[in-house]
C-alpha cells in the first residue's frame, strides 16, 4: 500500500514539473507568437528605364521639359555667381563683359550634372535635382548613366540656338526669367510636352467612344 502511494506521489510531482516548465518556456519567448514585422512600408526601387531612355543619344521627349528647366536654372545660377564675383570691382548693376558671360554660360553647360537624375513618381518618370520642384515620393533617383551627356548636349544646343548674348540679355531683362524664355513658347520643350500629353488624352478618349 505504501509503495502505491509513493509511486502516485512521484508521478504527480513529475506532471506538475512538466506543466511549470511548459509555462516558463512560453513566457520566456514572447516573440515566438508575435506577427512578423511588416516590410516595404518605406521601401523604394529604382525606376525601370525603357530602351529609348537607356540607349538613345537624345533626351526622351517626356523628359525634355524637366531637363530644360534644370538647364535654365543652372545658367541663371552661373550668371548670378559671375555677377556677384565682380560686383565689388564694378559699379552696382554693371554688365558682365562678353567674355565673362560667355564663360559663365559655357561652364554651366560643361559641368558634371551629377546632381541630376531620374525617378519615378506615381508611375511617371521625372527629372529631379536642383531647381526642380521636389516630388514627395520614396522613389530612388537614378543618376549617372546617359543623363549627364544628354544634359550637356541639350544645354549646348540652347547656346547654339539662342546665343550667349541673347540668353544674357534675357537674364538681365527679367531676373529668373530664363526658364520661360528657353522652355516655354512656340515649339519650346515644355509647350511641346504639354501638347503631347493633350494629344494622348484625346486619343484615349476617342478610343473609349
Automatic annotation (TrEMBL):
Presence of the UniProt keyword Signal in the record: yes
Disordered, as annotated region: 21-43
Keyword annotations from UniProtKB, A to Z: Signal
GO aspect biological process, one term: regulation of B cell proliferation
Residues of the signal peptide: 1-19
GO cellular component, one term: endoplasmic reticulum chaperone complex
Alphabetical list of InterPro entries matching this protein: MZB1 (IPR052682)
Residue stretches of biased makeup (Low complexity): 24-38
PANTHER family: MARGINAL ZONE B- AND B1-CELL-SPECIFIC PROTEIN
Protein name, entry field: Marginal zone B- and B1-cell-specific protein
Organism encoding this protein: Alligator sinensis
Amino acid at each position: 500500500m505504501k509503495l502505491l502511494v509513493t509511486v502516485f506521489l512521484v508521478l504527480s510531482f513529475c506532471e506538475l514539473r512538466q506543466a511549470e516548465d511548459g509555462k516558463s518556456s512560453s513566457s520566456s519567448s514572447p516573440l515566438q507568437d508575435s506577427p512578423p514585422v511588416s516590410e516595404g512600408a518605406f521601401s523604394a526601387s529604382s525606376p525601370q528605364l525603357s530602351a529609348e531612355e537607356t540607349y538613345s543619344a537624345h533626351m526622351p521627349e517626356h523628359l525634355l521639359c524637366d531637363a530644360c528647366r534644370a538647364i535654365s536654372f543652372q545658367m541663371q545660377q552661373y550668371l548670378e555667381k559671375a555677377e556677384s564675383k565682380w560686383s565689388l570691382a564694378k559699379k552696382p548693376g554693371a554688365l558682365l563683359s562678353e567674355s565673362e558671360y560667355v564663360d559663365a554660360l559655357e561652364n554651366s553647360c560643361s559641368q558634371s550634372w551629377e546632381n541630376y537624375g531620374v525617378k519615378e513618381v506615381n508611375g511617371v518618370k521625372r527629372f529631379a535635382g536642383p531647381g526642380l520642384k521636389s516630388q514627395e515620393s520614396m522613389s530612388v533617383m537614378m543618376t549617372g548613366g546617359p543623363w549627364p551627356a544628354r544634359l550637356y548636349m541639350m544645354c549646348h544646343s540652347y547656346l547654339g540656338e539662342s546665343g550667349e548674348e541673347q540668353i544674357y540679355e534675357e537674364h538681365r531683362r527679367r531676373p529668373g526669367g530664363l526658364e520661360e524664355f528657353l522652355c516655354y513658347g512656340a515649339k519650346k520643350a515644355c509647350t511641346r510636352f504639354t501638347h503631347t500629353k493633350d494629344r494622348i488624352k484625346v486619343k484615349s478618349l476617342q478610343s473609349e467612344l
